[in-house]
Write a structure and sequence with these properties.
Length: about 130
Amino acid sequence: MTVIRRLDAMLEETKPAVLEMKKQLDAARIDNQWAALCNAAQQAFCNASPFLLKDLTSRGAKQTLEADFKAYLNGFSPNVQEILEKFKFRDQMCLGNLGSALWSLIFRTCGGVVRRCGRHRAVGWVIWS
């Protein structure tokens, strides 16, 4: 998740430009969009999903979060997809079995603090600085 968060952080500033380019390319019915989208992202990779990783923490329902997280992962350009496949990221995530833990994992990865109900301690997570 740390690698995904780092990629996401690199794309955050140019996300609006990527989404606008995607909209234009879709309207023009252009199939091979990755080069133009990566150019809009000003990186060798991009994510064409409508989400940033931190956006997913606002998803309340388990089904919505899992579907949106899958869409987020599927939105990465082919070079990042290759990395996800090589490390078997989707297999390790076991998306269908994470339940409410997926929200917590994403929230912690984005630098959030999780307070556990019924306990007297807060757990802070530092993923990277």
